[in-house]
Every structure is written in structure tokens, then in C-alpha cells.
Automatic annotation (TrEMBL), chains A, B:
InterPro entries per the UniProt record, alphabetical: HTH_LacI, LacI/GalR-like_sensor, Lambda_DNA-bd_dom_sf, Peripla_BP_I
Alphabetical keyword list: DNA-binding, Transcription, Transcription regulation
A Pfam family recorded for this sequence: Peripla_BP_3
Signal peptide (from-to): none
HTH lacI-type domain mapped to chain residues: 6-60
Gene Ontology molecular function, alphabetical: DNA-binding transcription factor activity; transcription cis-regulatory region binding
Annotated protein name in UniProt: LacI family transcriptional regulator
Tagged with keyword Lyase: no
Source organism (scientific name): Aureibaculum marinum
DNA sequence: TTAATTTGCTTAATCGTTTAAGCAAAAAAT
DNA sequence: ATTTTTTGCTTAAACGATTAAGCAAATTAA
């Protein structure tokens, strides 16, 4: 069973024409007769011919492959972005290669190397939490390959970016909480070095100011936003002399950890403490009480990222500049913060 | 900024040696002097040389790429399998390309074409629910590329398979429920045409028999196991004249749907109805009450799948046969079924 | 009828790397 | 001192496709 793969030459031999003619026939070149085209395609089918991507990509300099780097696939947000990127790019004849960084800078660099090595035509990425050095991304740029960032981006790279308005989102959340009578609003934030989390923190601070609420530094913390982080920070907040009456968490997983602690401590949600998450992960709608969260429009982000790449796909010399597409987020109000609903 | 990529030839020119010598130096060929090797590597670094994978793969016939097909990445099970496959393969110099079928047969076929086209050295896959025809998988086999299936497999393909003992798992579940005093145990199963779901159903039936419990066909249903399916089937069960006192659901998402209905209808879990899911998705430990579920050992499945591929990676002619690695599953007992804990 | 154009192919070079074969110089063995 | 072996390279042919250039035959134009 030493199945030799069929090549263009095999087809040429069968029909007694040149390999070049076969190649052209398969690409519907106008200089090949309809008769020959039909014959070639028939033989190709008979011999179960599958073009060798490596050869054509090597020759033409285009792999029709786009690399995507995400911190993890195991999240509704990223998985949904991936699906939408794929959908848009498939239609244009591109295929995507998905790699995960697991939030590790080292892994992210490896991923970039892998993708460059695979000769992808472009890279769409969301940076790992850890990433602060941009040398590897500069490498991508210096190869002349379009680089598109989403969600976790970086202005300094001067490339296209698609994301939501994190600063504005925090305002949405705080407005909503104030609207529900909350006066001591805590924020369990992500690490400030990551731009999106920094923006959420800035938005939180400015929104408090807007409502003439004092900023209590005890109520503002940074973490990796895992479930465990959420639990830990929630315990810290409960141990304060003056507990908050609302907690706005910059990530749903951490919000879940906070929820667990509140439930375990028999604290009434939202009456005693209201809770808001971020990301609108499906489980926010599954737990008790359901968690209010911010929808990040993953579908649109995926689509826009893919379309942005396609903008470059024909250009020979890629000349990118900081070009941001900022979508406005949407607050999904659920039981964990909706005191008003309880009043009626 | 028309950055021409550095090739092996550029390095050769700088040092006034042949391209072949450079290639060999980079691969630490024993017939190249240490002095030359050092010089080559230095120049390679200076010129920021990145090997062209397309060229080397084309020439050597090995791409060092392994394709993985999963129904979706947005599930803890698959995401964890992916991570472990990647970890094992990366160590051996392989990279993985992840594709999603979204449970669609059509998409799965496209994925296979993409992977073959990319000239992967092997394919590791878990089949879509929809998949019944095996022609596309036969195509992979006929190309002489190793094919490894996990979780959702198919005996008829005669290839390696890694999974858990689904039949035995159902016994674990039923034993546990009987042990907790349940006598009318329902099963919300997956579609029988998918082997794993069929095995869970067979295990359920045989386990009832073992415990001398009658099999009531009203209590046994098939579905796609989405959250919505779980809700629907749970309503059906609640509308029966004789309600079950336990429900064993073949998937965690459907179990969650069932849980929502039970909670909404104010039915006491596990007292009135006990609930058991399958898959040990993280949310089973997040909801109220926490759902008893079956741990499928995703880490081990991923590792074994990768190792199985590596077994073939040196062989010229791949000769596969039905070779199953069956791991035994583990029942994670939580509140939703643990009546005994309540008694003490 | 002859020139110009179009059609339908072929030839050969090329993409960047690997690798079999070969060959001179150096080192080791006799 | 001569033969054998080893070392360190070079040359050239591949891998399978694409593509620029070219050329004869068929068609159209003048």
C-alpha cells in the first residue's frame, strides 16, 4: 500500500501533454481549450489528484494560510471570534491555523515562529496577558506580513486593531449600578499593564468621579482574573470594615469565583452586594443568580479582523498604521445586579 | 520596506561557500567543520534567517505538521485534549493545526481537505455528531497518512482509537444512583448512531438489568444533547404520569438544561430527582447544585493520541489496524446526586 | 493571397531547501 | 613512502507546482 501521491505530471503523462498545460487547465487559463480542460479535470478526478500546497505556495509565494494566535480556545469569546474569522476567510480561499499561547509570552513567541515558518500570509492575534515586550511582533511586521490585533492589542505596534470600547464599557457598568442604588462599588480588575484592563480601570475611576462617588483604593484590585483570583479578591472585600455594596469584575471567570464566595457566605445578591462580570460567557446565564455581564460582540470582532486582513491580501508592499476599529459593548442585565426588577 | 527574506543562499554568499554546506551546517551534519558551523549560525542570526518551511517540507516530504479536527474548541474537554496533544508533539518538533467541524459533516470534509492540502504528516480527529459516512476518512488512510481517532471514533475505519469506557461509565453512574436509593432512573442519551452514545445507552440498559430494575422506554430518550435538548427532554420526563427519581444525562450541557428546568419548577435536587451529567465540564462545579459528572481524562486522551501518532512518524509505509486504548472513567460525585451526604 | 492576430500548447526557469554523488586535501594506516 | 580512510566541502538533481517566453497552427483581417 505504498500509495504514491498523484502529481500534475501523472496527469500530463496520461494525456500526453505537458505539465504546464495541466496546471493551466486546472486554473482555467484562457489559453487552454475547453476540450483539454475537461479531459484534465476528468483525469485529475480519476487519479484522485490533490494539489500539493507546499509546491504551489513555494512557487507563488502565497500560502493562503492565515495564522491566528489566541490566549486560549477554551472560552466562548475566543472560540466565537475564531469561528467568525474562519467563516470570512474560508470564503476567500484562505484557511486558518489556530495556535494557543495559554497566556504565556514564551509560548506566544513559539507560536509566532511556527506561523512564520509555515509561511502564513498574515497573522491575527490577541496577546497573552504576560506579553509586554513586542520584539516578536516587530519581527512579524519586518517580514512584511500583515498583522491584525484584536481584544488584547498594543498601540505601539502601529498595526490594525479591533476591539470594544473598554473605557466606555466601565461607564455602562457603573451607570447601571448607580442606577440600582449602589454607592460603594468595588472593582476586581485585570493587570493594568494589559491595555484593555487598564482602560476598564480608568473607566471605572472616571465613572465614579462622574457620579460624585469617592474612589476608595481598598475597593480597587488587580489580578489574573481566574476563578481562584475572583474568590480571593472577594474574600478580601468581605473582610473590609466597610464592605462594598456592588462588585464589578473585569472578567467572567473571576466574577464566578466571587459569586461562589458570596453564595457560600450566604450574602444576598444583589440586595446586599450586586455583581457584574465582563465577557458574557455562557455560564453567566447558567449560574444562580445569573450574572450581569458585558457582551463583547465576538462575532463582529472576528468578522472585522478577517476583513481587515483581506484588505491587505492583494497588496505587494504592506504598509500598516495604527488603525482602530472600536465597537461599543452592550450590558446584559441579569439577576445579579438588577435590584429594580425585585422591587416591582 | 520591501524586505526580501533571507535564504540559505544569502548566507552562502556572505561566507563564500555553497548553499548545500549552509544547509548541512544548520542541521549539524557531521561532515561540516565546527568552524564553518559556527560561522554559518552567526551569519544566519545576523541576517535574521528563518528557514522556509515550504521548501524544506516539499523537498523532504515531511511537513512536521499534524492536523487536529475537533467538533468545537469551545469545550473544556476538547480544549484540554488539544493542549495535551500540542505539548507532546511540540517536544518532538511537530506543530499542530487545529480545525473545528462545528459538528457538521460538510465542514469536517472541508477540514480534511485543508489538512491534506497543507500536507500534514498525520491527522488526529474526533468525529462530528453528524458523521456517518467514512469516505473522507478513507481518503486520509489511502494517502498513507496516519489517522488517530479519539472520543468519537469508528471501528470500521480500522485505525487507532483513544477513548474512555463508555459502557462501563454508565455502570458507574447507575450503580451510584441505585446506591443512593434511586429506583426509576431515566437516561437522556445522545444519538445512538454515535458509538460513544450508543455504548452509554447499552451500559445504562445493562446496568438496570443488573440491579433488577425494569427498563421503561418512556425514560430513555435520544437527542443532540444541547442545553435546549436537555430542557426539552426534562420537561417531557416531568410530564410523565410516573416521574423518574433520577436522571442520567449523557452530556453536561444537556444536564445543565435539565437542571435549569428542575430549578425553575422548584423540584428538590437530589431529593425528588437526582441528576448526573457526563464530561465533567467546569461549569458542573459552578452551578447550584453542583452536578455529579463523569471525568473523561482529557489530558491522558490527548497525550495518548499524540504518542500514538509518534509511533508512526518514522515508518515509511503506514500500516494501521484497529487498536484501541480505552481509559476507565471516573465518577465525580457532587450535590446533585449525593443523597447520602444529606442524611449524615 | 498575404500579413496580422489569436489559439493552444511546449520549454525551461524558478521558488528555497535537501541530499546523493563526487572530489580534492588532510590525516591515519600500512 | 605509499595506500587507505576521513574530512570538508562542491555540484547538481531533485521536490511539485507556477509562469514567462516562445513557437507552430489555426483563424481573422487587409
Amino acid at each position: 500500500m505504498t500509495k504514491k501521491k498523484t502529481t500534475i505530471k501523472d496527469i500530463a503523462n496520461v494525456l500526453n501533454i505537458s505539465a504546464a498545460a495541466v496546471s493551466k487547465a486546472l486554473h482555467d487559463d484562457s489559453r487552454i481549450s475547453e476540450k483539454t480542460k475537461k479531459a484534465v479535470k476528468q483525469v485529475a478526478k480519476n487519479l484522485n489528484y490533490q494539489p500539493n500546497h507546499l509546491a504551489s505556495a513555494l512557487r507563488s509565494g502565497k500560502s493562503n494560510l492565515v495564522g491566528v494566535i489566541v490566549p486560549r480556545t477554551n472560552s466562548n469569546f475566543f472560540s466565537s471570534v475564531l469561528q467568525n474569522i474562519e467563516e470570512v476567510l474560508n470564503k476567500e480561499g484562505y484557511n486558518i491555523i489556530i495556535t494557543q499561547s495559554n497566556e504565556s509570552y514564551k509560548k506566544e513567541c513559539d507560536n509566532i515562529d511556527t506561523l512564520l515558518y509555515t509561511q502564513v500570509d498574515g497573522i491575527i492575534a490577541s496577546m497573552a496577558n504576560e506579553t509586554v515586550e513586542l520584539d516578536y511582533y516587530e519581527k512579524v511586521k519586518s517580514k512584511g506580513i500583515p498583522l491584525i490585533l484584536f481584544d488584547r492589542g498594543e498601540n505601539d505596534l502601529n498595526v490594525d486593531y479591533i476591539g470594544i470600547n473598554d473605557y466606555e464599557s466601565s461607564h455602562l457598568v457603573v451607570n447601571h449600578l448607580v442606577d440600582n442604588g449602589c454607592k460603594r462599588i468595588a472593582h476586581i480588575g485585570g493587570y493594568k499593564r494589559t491595555r484593555i484592563f487598564n482602560n476598564r480601570i480608568r473607566g471605572y475611576i472616571d465613572a465614579l468621579k462622574k457620579h460624585n462617588l469617592p474612589l476608595d483604593t481598598e475597593l480597587l484590585t488587580e489580578s489574573g482574573l481566574t476563578i481562584e483570583d475572583g474568590r480571593e479578591k472577594m474574600y478580601q472585600l468581605l473582610n473590609l470594615k466597610k464592605r462594598p455594596d456592588a462588585v464589578y469584575v473585569a472578567g467572567d471567570y473571576a466574577a464566578l469565583g466571587a459569586l461562589q464566595v458570596l453564595n457560600e457566605e450566604n450574602i444576598k445578591i444583589p440586595d446586599e452586594i450586586a455583581l457584574v462580570g465582563f465577557g458574557n460567557e455562557p455560564f453567566t446565564d447558567m449560574v444562580t443568580p445569573r450574572i450581569t455581564s458585558v457582551n463583547q460582540h465576538s462575532e463582529e470582532i472576528g468578522k472585522q479582523a478577517a476583513l481587515t486582513f483581506l484588505k491587505y491580501n492583494k497588496e505587494k508592499v504592506v504598509k500598516q498604521s495604527l488603525n482602530k476599529i472600536i465597537l461599543s459593548a452592550e450590558l446584559i442585565i441579569r439577576d445579579s445586579s438588577n435590584k429594580k426588577a425585585l422591587l416591582t
